[in-house]
């Protein structure tokens, strides 16, 4: 079979199928139009509604009243109260022990050996003589020089009047020279006064130096007691037990005192507090001999 014949056969079949499809579609369209144009049959009339009156329903019967039923109590068994154990009597509180304030124990102050003033040589003060000159830092005052007044030249009198006036002028000059003291008399009086004051000062120093050993020992004991009381007032917070230290006190002749901590306790904080408190040492009794003195005071402080 040639290709042209095959193509002609295929074209004939395609035309048949198209014709058949067109005929089927047209038949469906005619059927649809006929169904739409057909009149709708009228429905039969519905019967009229019938109303029936029903008798009211009887009320529901009241439920029977419940009869009281006596509650059946269970038989109670005999109850015996439990035995309550009696509490043991509380022990009587022990009486509080009243702690009496204990005064700080002051260390036994050993009196220092008093210096033997008897062995010291007593200075021999010789009375000053008029010829001895006492050395003084104060310069001596120069003697006052006599004031020479220059008078205006008088006119030359006549010879007779000049002779009469000369003896009268000589008398007042002699009186003035007699009234004025000699320039050497004033320095000599001052030397005598200075010598007497020096002698008085030496007498007072000798009296102080002659203080008895008992007076020196009493003074040392009083100074040590005051130093111990002062050091016990130091604020030593955080320390406990007995603290031992050594304080060196210097007392001037007028009683002015200064102190320093010579030996500490080993606790740096406590030693700093003791050193600051020793630096605030108050005035102490003056030495009886009038000479400055140094004292070494051992201190024991009990902190609780």
Structural class estimated from helices and strands: alpha+beta
CATH architecture of the domain at 213-303: 2-Layer Sandwich
Question: Can you identify the CATH class of the domain at 213-303?
Answer: Alpha Beta
Give average pLDDT, whole number: 69
Number of alpha- plus pi-helical segments? 5
Poorly predicted segments = 127-136, 181-185
Based on Cα principal axes, name the global outline: elongated
Order of helices and strands: HHHHEEHE
Distance between the termini: 141 Å
> Order of strands across the biggest sheet?
2-1-3
Strand count, sense and barrel status of the largest sheet are: 3 strands, antiparallel
User: According to CATH, what is the topology of the domain at 213-303?
Assistant: Fusion Protein Consisting Of Minor Coat Protein, Glycine Rich Linker, Tola, And A His Tag, Chain: A, Domain 2
Cα radius of gyration in angstroms: 74 Å
Fraction of helical residues? 25-40%
Percentage beta strand: 5-15%
- Let me know the number of strands: 3
Oligomer state equals single chain
Biased composition (Low complexity): 98-111, 178-213
Biased composition (Pro residues): 59-71
Biased composition (Basic and acidic residues): 138-177
Protein name: Energy transducer TonB
Structural description of this entry:
Residues 59-71 have a biased composition (Pro residues). Residues 138-177 have a biased composition (Basic and acidic residues). It comes from Paracoccus zhejiangensis. The chain has 304 residues and is an alpha+beta fold. The protein has a domain at 213-303: Fusion Protein Consisting Of Minor Coat Protein, Glycine Rich Linker, Tola, And A His Tag, Chain: A, Domain 2 (2-Layer Sandwich), CATH 3.30.1150. The protein has 5 helices and 3 strands, in the order ααααββαβ. The chain has helices at residues 3-37, 159-179, 185-209, 213-232, 268-278, and strands at 241-251, 257-263, 293-303. The protein has a 3-stranded antiparallel sheet, covered by helices on one side. The protein is elongated, with a radius of gyration of 74 Å. It starts with a helix and ends with a strand. The model is unreliable at 127-136 and 181-185 (pLDDT under 50).
């Amino acid at each position: 079979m040639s290709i042209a014949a095959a193509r002609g056969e295929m074209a004939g079949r395609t035309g048949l199928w198209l014709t058949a499809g067109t005929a089927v579609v047209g038949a469906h369209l005619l059927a649809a139009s006929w169904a739409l144009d057909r009149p709708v049959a009228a429905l039969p009339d519905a019967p009229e509604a019938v109303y029936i009156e029903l008798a009211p329903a009887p009320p529901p019967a009241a439920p029977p009243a419940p009869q009281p039923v006596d509650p059946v109590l269970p038989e109670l068994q005999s109850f015996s109260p439990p035995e309550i154990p009696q509490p043991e009597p509380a022990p009587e509180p022990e009486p509080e022990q009243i702690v009496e304030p204990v005064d700080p124990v002051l260390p036994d102050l050993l009196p220092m050996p008093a210096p033997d003033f008897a062995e010291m040589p007593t200075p021999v003060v010789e009375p000053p003589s008029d010829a001895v000159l006492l050395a003084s830092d104060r310069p001596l005052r120069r003697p006052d020089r006599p004031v020479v007044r220059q008078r205006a030249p008088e006119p030359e009198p006549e010879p007779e009047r000049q002779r009469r006036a000369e003896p009268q002028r000589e008398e007042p000059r002699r009186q003035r020279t007699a009234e004025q003291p000699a320039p050497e008399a004033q320095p000599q009086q001052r030397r005598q006064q200075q010598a007497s004051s020096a002698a008085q000062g030496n007498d007072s120093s000798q009296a102080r130096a002659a203080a008895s050993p008992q007076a020196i020992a009493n003074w040392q004991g009083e100074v040590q007691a005051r130093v111990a009381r002062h050091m016990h007032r130091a604020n030593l917070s955080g320390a406990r037990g007995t603290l031992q230290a050594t304080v060196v006190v210097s007392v001037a002749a007028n009683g002015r005192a200064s102190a320093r901590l010579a030996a500490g306790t080993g606790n740096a904080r406590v030693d700093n507090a003791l050193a600051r408190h020793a630096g605030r040492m108050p005035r102490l009794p003056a030495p009886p001999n009038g000479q400055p003195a140094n004292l070494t005071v051992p201190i024991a402080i009990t902190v609780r």
